[in-house]
Design brief:
Layout (H helix, E strand, L loop, with lengths): L15 H19 L4 E12 L20 H8 L14 E12 L6 E7 L10 H15 L3 E6 L23 E6 L8 E5 L7 E4 L8 E4 H11 L17 H13 L10
Helix pairs in contact: 1-4
Length: about 270
């Protein structure tokens, strides 16, 4: 069953963990087929620990390796008294964020383009996840990496790498895509996406001498919806988080036309 919406389905935000995984994978697969020679698309992940400060990607500072020692040494170590720790319960939460890197095939550590599909936690107030996201974003924008941000989340604060004040009010749409090119630090490409419109075909920048490759976001969302079997969504109730008044009115009318809500009785 296809989604009843022409573009982003606002009901999918409550299923974002599942949608995000498939969306990122399908973006990787589509790009892999059209990238020029010498480039590869790779799915990546970063682990964010909430409840610690500052937020960080998890990498060990100390590695424990297996090694063997003499019996005498083992006896000496067993005689050393150790302090008994006090166990403290901590409100830690681990979150895995998935994204895509386009790299040089023969030099896999050389990243050309990063594609981020924004998650709700990336837009949540003063969270560690948001701070970690903005820190990475700054590294990309001020480095030699192209950055593509796909924001299909309504809830939360503005995080894409273009100031909202620089965008005319009529273009501050429900959803958006921002492209920042490493070769053009002073400009950003902004794709406005109203709720009632299909997702666009966007241009993915690569190396300076490469042509951009197109990425059809709507076809990727459609595949994610159909393969995720979201035919169990209840369209008779309003989605979460709550919609703006104009969007709520449009959705109600649209779903009634699709036969997914009962028509209002005339008085």
């Amino acid at each position: 069953m296809p989604s009843p919406f022409p573009g982003m389905d606002p009901y999918l935000e409550s299923e974002w963990g599942d949608i995000h995984l498939s969306f990122v994978a399908y973006v990787r697969n589509r790009l892999q087929k059209v990238l020029p020679a010498g480039l590869r698309a790779r799915g990546e992940q970063r682990l964010i620990i909430s409840g610690s400060d500052p937020s960080h990607q998890v990498r060990p500072d100390v590695e424990i390796s297996e090694w063997r020692e003499s019996t005498d040494r083992q006896i000496q170590l067993s005689q050393i008294a150790t302090a008994s720790p006090v166990l403290i319960e901590l409100p830690l939460e681990m979150e895995t964020q998935h994204y895509i890197e386009i790299r040089l095939a023969k030099s896999p550590h050389r990243v050309v383009t990063v594609i981020e599909v924004v998650s709700p936690s990336n837009k949540r107030g003063n969270s560690e996840s948001k701070r970690a996201y903005l820190q990475k974003q700054s590294c990309y924008v001020h480095g030699s990496v192209n950055l593509v941000e796909i924001d299909l989340i309504r809830k939360g604060e503005w995080v894409v790498a273009v100031p909202p004040d620089s965008i005319p009010m009529r273009m501050r749409t429900t959803y958006r895509v921002v492209v920042r090119r490493a070769s053009d630090k002073w400009n950003a490409e902004y794709y406005p996406i109203p709720l009632e419109s299909p997702l666009p075909v966007i241009n993915i920048p690569l190396r300076e001498f490469d042509e951009d490759v197109p990425l059809d976001l709507q076809s990727i969302l459609t595949a994610s919806y159909e393969d995720g079997a979201y035919d169990d969504i209840d369209y008779t109730i309003d989605p979460e988080p709550p919609l703006a008044a104009a969007d709520r009115k449009w959705i109600d009318q649209h779903l009634r036309k699709k036969g997914l809500r009962k028509a209002k009785k005339r008085k």
